[in-house]
Design goal:
Elements (H helix, E strand, L loop, with lengths): L7 H14 L5 H8 L6 H10 L7 H8 L4 H5 L11 H20 L1 H4 L2 H14 L8 H7 L7 H26 L4 H10 L6 H8 L3 H13 L11 H17 L1 H28 L12
Helix pairs in contact: 1-10, 1-15, 2-6, 8-10, 8-15, 9-10, 10-14, 11-13
Protein name: SalK
Pfam families: HTH_67 (PF21863)
Organism: Streptomyces chumphonensis
Length: 287
């Protein structure tokens, strides 16, 4: 980056992204989708994240989500769209975001000047996001910005998440990693989703996971114990740096002072959400 520290955008993203991600683990989301007739947790996730595309099938979701088994997606899509329309799902998702943030952060935080400031900063950053070759971002960028500040912040966090995520997939493909191999190697860093959660949510079997480990070992990226080798560590570092480069525009547009302030506010709000139990305790790590 030219106007701020090279990793400042990544740090900012890491502090803002959890505010979006809370909806995928929130009982409020399950309740809102159940009211529409969608009750399977995987169907809830696929529909709430893909609804901005319209009534797409499993191919689009497999391509844009990247780390999910196509067969798992096909068990739920397009069938779920016969139960609820994409617009109904989008409306339910926004209601769930409202309920979730109010519950996790409290009414005082939701109504605070700091919340409005964070929303303004995050939305300003999204002004520099690019639609080209970023399908999940582009689909969400066509959605209206909610009026309430906490929902505007959630919407902006969604845009920043999907913008970085689309660029990250390009970096993974450039590194020659399939979706499953990317998941396995990320877990090996100790920062990714644990095997228990990855296998429980992504649709892969233990045999699939083991086969991916063997392919990574053949490339010299994993050792016999499933740990990253020096080459593996270097590859994962290069992937994150490549992702940073692809995602620099929003944060350069916001500027160093704005990025620092949004990171500060995001840390406060995301920290409160984490303390309130927004995510399962065993979701991350190698175990």
């Amino acid at each position: 980056m030219t106007t701020l520290h090279a990793r400042a955008g990544r740090r900012c993203h890491n502090m803002v992204n959890p505010l979006h991600s809370t909806v995928y683990f929130s009982p409020d989301t399950g309740e809102e989708l159940a009211a529409l007739g969608i009750t399977d947790p995987r169907a809830v996730y696929f529909t709430t994240r893909a609804a901005a595309f319209g009534a797409v099938g499993p191919g689009v979701v497999a391509a844009t989500f990247y780390s999910f088994d196509h067969a798992l997606i096909a068990r739920h899509l397009p069938a779920a769209w016969r139960t609820a329309t994409p617009q109904q799902v989008l409306d339910a998702r926004l209601r769930a975001a409202d309920r979730t943030l109010r519950r996790l952060l409290g009414e005082e935080a939701v109504a605070s000047a700091e919340m409005a400031e964070a929303a303004e900063l995050a939305l300003r950053a999204t002004e520099a996001c690019e639609r080209g070759a970023r399908p999940l971002y582009a689909a969400h960028a066509d959605l209206p910005v909610p009026e309430e500040p906490h929902l505007a912040l959630w919407h902006a966090a969604t845009l920043l998440r999907e913008h970085r995520g689309d660029g990250h997939l390009a970096a993974l493909m450039g590194a020659g990693l399939t979706g499953l191999e990317a998941q396995v190697s990320h877990t090996a860093t100790g920062k990714g989703m644990s095997p228990k959660w990855a296998l429980g949510t992504r649709g892969y079997t233990r045999e699939d996971w083991t086969a991916a480990q063997e392919r990574l070992r053949a490339r010299g990226l994993l050792d016999a114990d499933g740990e990253l080798t020096e080459e593996g560590v270097a590859l994962r570092r290069a992937i994150e740096e490549d992702t940073d480069r692809r995602d620099r525009a929003p944060y350069e547009h916001l500027g160093a002072a704005g990025v620092e302030r949004l990171t500060e506010l995001g840390t406060v709000f995301s920290g409160a959400a984490l303390q309130a139990g927004a995510f399962p305790a065993d979701m991350f790590g190698k175990g």
